[in-house]
């Protein structure tokens, strides 16, 4: 695109400007060089002093204007009147010339200082023209004056000769003037040719400059387009750079994220390894402890047998000495009075001897007590030895003293015996009071903690499982135990690409970190299990999606079922010393499709109802649930109940393998065998249940995940001494997987299963919510599902007889981020249950 010259001028990098006068000259119109007027040339040469030919200063033109008309001949001129004659200057020519030159110079001077505006130049040309006209007019006036006052005026008309002379002189003068005019013309022509060549030069210069201008313009255009291209390139490079930077940033963020995730994984791995190491160490410690205990037991046994041997030795020595004494006494009796004193000395020596023996016995007893307090049989035998010793002493006394003293001694001994019996009674009474106090305290503690409690447990990552959900435990170091958890949802992105990091905080009665072993979990449940012994009904329910660890926590090694049995057995043994006797029975049932099945019965008879029959016409359950409104007891008809304690002696099919041990179990000295029996019996119960479920699974897959199992323990206790009695039920429930299967996608048996599971789990939530509303038992919808109806008396409510119960909901979570939604719905269920407060539990 062509730009105006003024703009181009401004952009000229070199600062080169086209000669300012050239456009002016060119703009003067389409005049050719021949058309250029003398005045133009004069004006130009005047304005541009250095461009003018130096010769023009020397050979100034005469200043005479070219005759506008044809010159007259001399004869013609001679015939003219003086007024009409030519105006020939005398001195005025030079003056006019000088004037004209001066004027031109003046114009030039003034023009050179002025700008190159065409207007000003035009003014200069007009001035020059005016001056030339004035110069042309002036000489004519001078000639006329001269002619009148000088030459022509002095001659008389008749003086032809004089007038001829005048004419001759005038002619000569004119010739001179003509000659000078010719010179002047030559000079002017020379000047013109100089000007012409100068004009050519200038034209050439103009052309060169135009070409140069064009070149520069095209250079400029090129430079501008280069600049444009460079700017575009730079912008593109900038954009590329920005894009690269963004990519780099994204990559960097991703890498950081990956590194963080890797670190976390490593940390967790290390934690897991640490936990495994701790577990291994614990196992080793346990083994070492067991070995030490065994060693101790062996040592105790050795010491005991040694002690027995010593006692036997002492006894035989006593017997020998007694026999010897008896002989000596007899001899003494037979001897005379004189030897009585000697005998008395001997008796004294014997007495000393007996005292030292007594000291030995006491020391032996002290050693024995310190070694094993539980060896009550040994103590009782020691007591009989003590009695023997006392009788020996009394015999010695008898020998020593008279009849009266002997009877006094006897009375003292009887009193001491009565005192000992009274002390024993008082001790038993204190123990009973202590036991009652303990039960009350335990009840108070549990009441304070609430009748419905919720624990959360996350299982560790298994095998090659990866990508755990992020969980934080804000009060991990709390001395009261961890109760809070913050679960982070997997990072998502909004429609605008913004990162969304959701997290949810929860608080429960207890939160267990991933990897907490079963044993530690049970320690927190122990108080609740203990309260069953005290006569409360308790339910512990494992809730969570399939694979979250419900079965592992309930029936696995050190799980709640085996640990509860072992804890209850040790408590039963402890209470035996305080006068309490317990009977323990176990049943194991499954609730599947709203039907109760006996897991210890025959699996082949399960799931027999006609699928097509409607619910009302369905035949009655084989196992009916019945609640006694007076006792508050729940019974299920046709249910197998296995005696776990005391081990039965008369059932040939039951007890299972440790028959001999069981037979001896009623003997207090064989508690270990009895415990072994019960433990084995429980293992066998669990095996039988698992086997039955496997058989049933041929009809319905994944039976264990799709049904609820309930291990029911009934503990009946009585204290003959006080006439007190108690009955508590412990229900250990492994619920069906809580994952919500879409009913729309399920068909046939799976649809029915899903409906039954959803119904029973939501009924469970509703029942607990209703119990928490405080509207009373009448408003609790126990009957909405078989599960809640079966557990009615142990879900935290209060039975008609005023007996109330306790519940522990154990939420099991998968650690995987992929299972986040299921974990969240479990946590929401737990929060709903945890928010429910149910009043104080009462025992009847
Ligand atoms: N705390 C844990 N420590 C180690 N392994 C565990 C733990 N919890 C669960 N597991 C393992 O996870 C797997 C699934 O556990 P489990 O069978 O108990 O889940 P579940 O919830 O009972 O499933 P389902 O509902 O199908 O019966 C098992 O292999 C189990 O050994």
TrEMBL record:
Alphabetical list of SMART domains matching this protein: KISc
GO cellular component, one term: microtubule
Region annotation Disordered: where it falls in the sequence: 1-155, 228-257, 610-657
Compositional bias (Basic and acidic residues): 235-257
Top-level taxon in the UniProt lineage: Eukaryota
A Gene Ontology BP annotation from the UniProt entry: microtubule-based movement
Keyword Nucleotide-binding tagged: yes
GO molecular function: ATP binding; microtubule binding; microtubule motor activity
InterPro entries for the chain: Kinesin-like_fam, Kinesin_motor_CS, Kinesin_motor_dom, Kinesin_motor_dom_sf, P-loop_NTPase, Vik1/Cik1_MT-bd
Annotated Polar residues bias: 33-42
UniProt entry keywords in alphabetical sequence: ATP-binding, Microtubule, Motor protein, Nucleotide-binding
Compositionally biased region (Low complexity): 99-137
Domain Kinesin motor: 451-836
Keyword presence, Nucleus: no
Binding site for ATP: 544-551
Similarity comment: family membership: Belongs to the TRAFAC class myosin-kinesin ATPase superfamily. Kinesin family. KIN-14 subfamily.
Record's protein name: Kinesin-like protein
Species for this entry: Cladosporium halotolerans
């Amino acid at each position: 695109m062509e730009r105006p010259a003024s703009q181009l001028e401004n952009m000229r990098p070199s600062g080169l400007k086209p000669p300012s006068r050239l456009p002016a000259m060119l703009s003067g119109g389409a005049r050719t060089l021949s058309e250029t007027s003398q005045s133009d040339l004069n004006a130009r040469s005047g304005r541009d002093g250095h461009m003018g030919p130096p010769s023009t200063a020397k050979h100034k033109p005469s200043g005479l204007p070219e005759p506008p008309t044809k010159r007259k001949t001399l004869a013609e001129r001679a015939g003219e009147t003086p007024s009409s004659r030519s105006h020939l200057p005398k001195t005025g020519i030079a003056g006019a010339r000088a004037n004209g030159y001066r004027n031109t110079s003046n114009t030039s001077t003034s023009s050179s200082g002025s700008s190159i505006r065409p207007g000003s130049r035009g003014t200069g040309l007009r001035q020059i023209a005016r001056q030339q006209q004035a110069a042309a007019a002036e000489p004519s006036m001078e000639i006329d004056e001269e002619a009148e006052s000088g030459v022509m005026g002095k001659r008389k008309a008749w003086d032809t000769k004089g007038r001829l002379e005048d004419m001759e002189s005038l002619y000569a003068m004119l010739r001179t003037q003509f000659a000078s005019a010719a010179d002047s013309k030559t000079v002017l022509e020379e000047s013109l040719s100089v000007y012409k060549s100068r004009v050519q030069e200038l034209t050439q210069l103009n052309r060169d400059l135009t070409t140069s201008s064009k070149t520069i313009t095209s250079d400029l255009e090129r430079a501008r387009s280069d600049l444009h291209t460079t700017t575009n390139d730079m912008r593109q490079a900038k954009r590329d750079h920005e894009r690269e930077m963004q990519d780099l940033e994204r990559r960097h963020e991703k890498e950081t994220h990956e590194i963080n995730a890797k670190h976390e994984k490593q940390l967790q791995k290390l934690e897991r390894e640490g936990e495994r190491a701790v577990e291994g160490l614990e196992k080793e410690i346990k083994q070492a402890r067991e070995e030490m205990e065994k060693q101790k037991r062996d040592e105790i046994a050795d010491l005991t047998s040694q002690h027995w041997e010593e006692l036997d030795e002492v006894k035989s020595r006593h017997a020998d000495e007694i026999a010897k004494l008896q002989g000596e006494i007899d001899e003494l009796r037979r001897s005379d009075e004189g030897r009585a004193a000697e005998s008395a000395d001997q008796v004294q020596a014997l007495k000393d001897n007996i005292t030292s023996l007594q000291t030995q016995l006491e020391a032996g007893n002290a050693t024995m007590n310190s070694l094993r307090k539980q060896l009550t049989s040994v103590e009782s035998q020691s007591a009989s030895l003590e009695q023997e010793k006392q009788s020996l002493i009394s015999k010695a006394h008898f020998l020593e003293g008279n009849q009266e003293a002997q009877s006094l001694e006897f009375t003292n001994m009887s009193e001491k015996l009565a005192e000992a019996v009274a002390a024993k009674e008082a001790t038993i009474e204190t123990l009973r009071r202590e036991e009652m106090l303990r039960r009350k305290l335990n009840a108070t503690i549990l009441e304070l903690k609430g009748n419905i409690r919720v624990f959360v447990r996350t299982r560790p990552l298994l095998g090659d499982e990866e990508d755990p959900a992020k969980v934080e435990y804000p009060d991990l170091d709390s001395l009261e135990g961890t109760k809070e958890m913050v679960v982070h949802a997997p990072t998502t992105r909004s429609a605008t690409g913004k990162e969304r990091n959701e997290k949810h905080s929860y608080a429960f009665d207890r939160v267990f970190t991933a990897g907490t072993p079963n044993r530690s979990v049970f320690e927190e449940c122990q108080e609740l299990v203990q309260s069953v012994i005290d006569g409360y009904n308790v339910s512990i329910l494992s809730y969570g999606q399939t694979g979250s660890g419900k079965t592992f926590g309930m029936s696995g090694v050190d799980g709640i079922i085996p640990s509860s049995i072992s804890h209850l057995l040790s408590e039963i043994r402890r209470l035996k010393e305080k006068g309490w006797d317990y009977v323990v029975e176990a049943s194991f049932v499954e609730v599947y499709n709203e039907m109760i099945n006996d897991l210890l019965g025959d699996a082949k008879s399960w799931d027999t109802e006609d699928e097509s029959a409607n619910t009302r016409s369905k035949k009655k359950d084989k196992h009916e649930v019945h609640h006694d409104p007076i006792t508050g007891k729940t019974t299920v008809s046709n249910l197998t109940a296995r005696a776990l304690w005391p081990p039965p002696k008369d059932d040939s099919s039951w007890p299972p393998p440790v028959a001999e041990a069981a037979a001896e179990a009623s003997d207090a000295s064989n508690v270990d065998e009895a415990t072994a029996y019960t433990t084995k019996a429980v293992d066998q119960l669990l095996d039988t249940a698992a086997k039955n479920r496997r058989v049933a699974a041929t009809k319905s897959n994944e039976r264990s995940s799709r049904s609820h199992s309930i291990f029911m323990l009934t503990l009946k206790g009585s204290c003959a001494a006080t006439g007190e009695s108690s009955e508590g039920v412990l229900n250990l429930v492994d619920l069906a997987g809580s994952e919500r299967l879409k009913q729309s996608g399920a068909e046939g048996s799976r649809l029915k299963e899903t409906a039954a599971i959803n119904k029973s789990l939501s009924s469970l939530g509703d029942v607990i919510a209703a119990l928490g509303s405080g509207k009373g038992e009448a408003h609790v919808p126990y009957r909405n599902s078989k599960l809640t109806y079966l557990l009615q008396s142990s879900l935290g409510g209060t039975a008609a007889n005023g007996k109330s119960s306790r519940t522990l909901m154990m939420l099991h979570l998968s650690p995987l981020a992929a299972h986040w939604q299921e974990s969240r719905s479990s946590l929401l269920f737990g929060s709903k249950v945890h928010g429910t407060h149910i009043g104080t539990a009462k025992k009847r």
